[in-house]
């Protein structure tokens, strides 16, 4: 039985990955700042460790016990970005990843799946972005560059590393849709700004499927855009979300209001990233949800 250690296991993606691998017969060690984890009482093969992964500590002794490491830790970006909170966003990702990699033994044969984001490309308008595209210069882009650099250090210890550049992850019971859907249900939904910027997305089942695909194909590694194969503009996303919820989507949030109310986060939400999962497609991964409509219908109309 293979053992997986997952940092950030109590978050939206972490919860879903943890449950998936436990039901597949894996043993899982979850690490995060929550005192408890809801799956602790449901699976005997799940061990929960409550720890601040930005600090060195006993949690690092568990790293060498795992065959697979999945690094998901990071503060939620959907809060107002004060100077202190931006530092917390940075440290929760970069310092955690540094501590994780430092705990890996030399000549390890482990596999590391470490997170990044499509935000690494910054605001690129209509450019088609593959994994070979250059990074941007925004705050989130710089965070992602440093985040990936720390994760890729594990290759020096013999670890197979896959960097997962997440788009906006779509699923029920958490994630970005839990923030967006209430506004639409109140008949107040619509595009952000003019809605012409590209919006990278991925269904949670494809995120899980792509992670499993990489783990099961030991000859592939490197950087992967974890985004749907058919990106959409933000106004199309808003229209499809309204359609899935049977609500209109014609009340836009003007760009100047988004920036005024949300500050630097608002500017990040208006960035355009037409990210294509070229590496996954070239490696042979077949998406379960190739279009946004079917993805949203699955989330809201099961």
What does this structure look like?
Strands 3-2-1-4-5-7-11 form a seven-stranded parallel β-sheet, with helices on both faces. A two-stranded parallel ribbon has the order 6-13. The chain has a two-stranded parallel sheet with strand order 8-10. With 302 residues, the protein is an alpha/beta fold. The chain has ten helices and 13 strands. The chain has a single domain (3-174, 200-230, 275-289), classed as Rossmann fold (3-Layer(aba) Sandwich), CATH 3.40.50. It has helices at residues 12-23, 83-102, 139-152, 177-185, 204-216, 234-245, 255-262, 264-269, 278-283, 292-300, and strands spanning 3-7, 27-32, 46-50, 68-71, 111-117, 128-129, 160-166, 168-170, 198-199, 201-203, 222-226, 232-233, 274-275. α2 runs parallel beside α3 and α6 (234-245) runs parallel beside α10 (292-300). The protein is globular and about 55 Å long. The longest helix is centred in the first third of the chain and has 20 residues, at 83-102. β1 (3-7), α1 and β2 form a beta-alpha-beta unit.
């Amino acid at each position: 039985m293979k053992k997986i250690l997952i940092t950030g296991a109590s978050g939206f993606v972490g919860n879903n990955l943890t449950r998936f691998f436990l039901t597949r017969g894996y043993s899982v060690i979850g690490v995060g700042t929550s005192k408890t984890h809801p799956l602790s009482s449901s699976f005997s093969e799940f061990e929960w460790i409550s720890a601040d992964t930005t600090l060195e500590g006993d949690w690092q002794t568990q790293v060498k016990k795992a065959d697979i490491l999945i690094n998901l830790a990071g503060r939620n970006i959907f809060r107002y970005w004060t100077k202190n909170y931006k530092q917390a966003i940075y440290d929760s990702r970069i310092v955690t990843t540094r501590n994780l990699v430092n705990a890996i033994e030399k000549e390890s044969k482990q596999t590391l799946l470490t997170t990044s984001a499509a935000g690494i490309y910054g605001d690129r308008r209509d450019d088609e972005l593959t994994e070979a595209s250059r990074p941007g210069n925004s705050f989130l882009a710089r965070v992602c560059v440093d985040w990936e650099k720390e994760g890729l250090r594990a290759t020096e210890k013999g670890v197979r590393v896959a960097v997962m550049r997440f788009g906006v992850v779509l699923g029920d019971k958490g994630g970005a849709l839990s923030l967006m859907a209430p506004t639409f249900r109140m008949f107040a939904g619509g595009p952000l700004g003019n809605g012409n910027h590209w919006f990278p997305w991925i269904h949670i089942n494809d995120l899980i499927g792509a992670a499993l695909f990489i783990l099961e194909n030991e000859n592939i590694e490197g950087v992967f855009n974890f985004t749907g194969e058919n990106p959409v503009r933000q106004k199309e996303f808003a229209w499809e979300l309204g359609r899935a919820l049977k609500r209109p989507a014609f009340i836009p949030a003007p760009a100047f209001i988004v920036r005024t109310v949300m500050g630097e986060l608002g500017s990040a939400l208006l960035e355009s990233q037409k990210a294509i999962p070229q590496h996954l497609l070239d490696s042979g991964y077949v998406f379960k949800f190739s279009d946004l409509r079917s993805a949203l219908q699955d989330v809201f109309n099961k």
